[in-house]
TrEMBL record:
The lineage of its organism: Eukaryota, Metazoa, Chordata, Craniata, Vertebrata. Probable calcium-dependent phospholipid-binding protein that may play a role in calcium-mediated intracellular processes. SUPFAM superfamilies: C2 domain (Calcium/lipid-binding domain, CaLB), vWA-like. Residues 1-21 are annotated as: Disordered. The keyword Mitochondrion does not apply. One of its GO terms (biological process) is cellular response to calcium ion. InterPro entries: C2_dom (IPR000008), C2_domain_sf (IPR035892), C2B_Copine (IPR037768), Copine (IPR045052), Copine_C (IPR010734), VWF_A (IPR002035), vWFA_dom_sf (IPR036465). GO terms for cellular component: plasma membrane. Keywords: Calcium, Metal-binding, Phosphoprotein, Repeat. Residues 323-524 form the VWFA domain. The keyword tRNA-binding does not apply. This is Copine-8.
Amino acid sequence: MFRLEKPAGQQKPGRSGGLPKMASVGDFNVLSSSIPATKVELSVSCRNLLDRDTFSKSDPICVLYTQAIGNKEWREFGRTEVIDNTLNPDFVRKFIMDYFFEERENLRFDFYDVDSKSPNLSKHDFLGQMFCTLGEIVGSQGSRLEKPIVGIPGKKCGTVIVTAEELGCCRDSVLMQFCANKLDKKDFFGKSDPFLVFHRSNEDGSFTICHKTEVVKNTLNPVWQAFKISVRALCNGDYDRTIKVEVYDWDRDGSHDFIGEFTTSYRELSRGQSQFNVYEVINPKKKGKKKKYVNSGTVTLLSFLIETEVSFLDYIKGGTQINFTVAIDFTASNGNPSQPTSLHYMNPYQLNAYGMALRAVGEIIQDYDSDKMFPALGFGARLPPDGRVSHEFALNGNPQNPYCHGIDGVMEAYYRSLKSVQLYGPTNFAPVINHVARYAASVKDGSQYFVLLIITDGVISDMAQTKESIVNASKLPMSIIIVGVGPAEFDAMEELDGDVVRISSRGRFAERDIVQFVPFRDYIDRSGNHVLSMARLAKDVLAEIPEQFLSYMRVRGIKPSPAPPPYTPPIHVLQTQI
């Protein structure tokens, strides 16, 4: 029997996000990055593997590795079962992974012909490997990626097919309502002011706060308003995970009095209103002290309704393409590109800030664009031969076709432009925003979504026109990312971001928030590790894109297209050894 060192789909150590493991009642913040955007299940099949066995066919296994961001070290994530005597395995055991749009997750699939029961892979014959990113799989048509297996020089090693399926529980939300009866009286002059606090349990036995109800004033029999919470936030998709509910009496000074608590689970709650969902509220201290103590009241579930929401991945799987355009600031304030002090300095040994921002964002977005052709624009330069100033020129020198092939093509065109144009000014954003908006305005059916990355060093010169362009663009399928490089003050950019105050122009407000601004200096790793700086930047600037994308689709009532029919591999008679 082949023993697995680690079951497939076992999760990586928890990603600590916004919240500490134990949050006090007062400091609850809406959960953000602490919960994965979703979970996907990867299925692996191979065709025409190498035959390493003399008297029979190979007995293949697939081993999946993920790569750490900082030191690039590969770590084993999981293994499939071994399938006897086949060169065309369809592995049954799946890999379940956390999926974050804003992170680049490098994957490596290694294939071996298993010759003994040893879990040590060096004891088995290597059949080849395949490298890709999780985004590449998800972004492929129908979320199905087919690639050649490589790694053995001079040999055809066959092909691998990896299919990603979003796990359903991740996009369910529940609408619940609770009431309570005969809660303990905690206030000297009036009755209690009760509220509930929900916690989900973690793998290590600690609890994380995930919802707090409103306070109902002066009653021992409160009825709280119905509230909506994602199943992910409530129990991380594990229906049997403990959910702890605490009942408090609200006090103005923040020292809320503990009334009692009870535990339940998603599975219990899903039974809906019934005798199973009436809970005794227990105060352990009182229970320990008083022999006659029964409870501190009861809490009853009044209703439980499951709602399934369409997700970002539903649209991607249905064929929606993300079109990526980059616009680079060529104004004189960047400094002479031949000087090391310039933000555009072409250092032969490392990327400048523009190059880092471009690669960080572009390498993730390119997985969702099937033709990998990206328009690359510049603004604020004097162009040859006549020295006219342009705020919307093609980096590749071809205004009729500003497309570059892949992020490498964009980088090449950027470096070429630096040698041919003269940095000038002023810093005008409106022309490049309007350029992308013209394309976005022609495709409003949900089949395409446009992301414009503007990288700039400074203070914007056409604020009024830019605001107007953003307000107009907020009705279109597009988002704008602005990365500020260099030491300038970027106060004006914060205004464009619209997170605090919705952006407006001449009395018209933006229909939705489509701009995300970040200063690159906030992400620079102190130890000089540029890989970490780029990963941090990408995580922050791209995290809002799926929600901005969904807000456009929701406002327009656009549903995802049906995904292409799933891949059904040819049927083989297989002997499976688990």
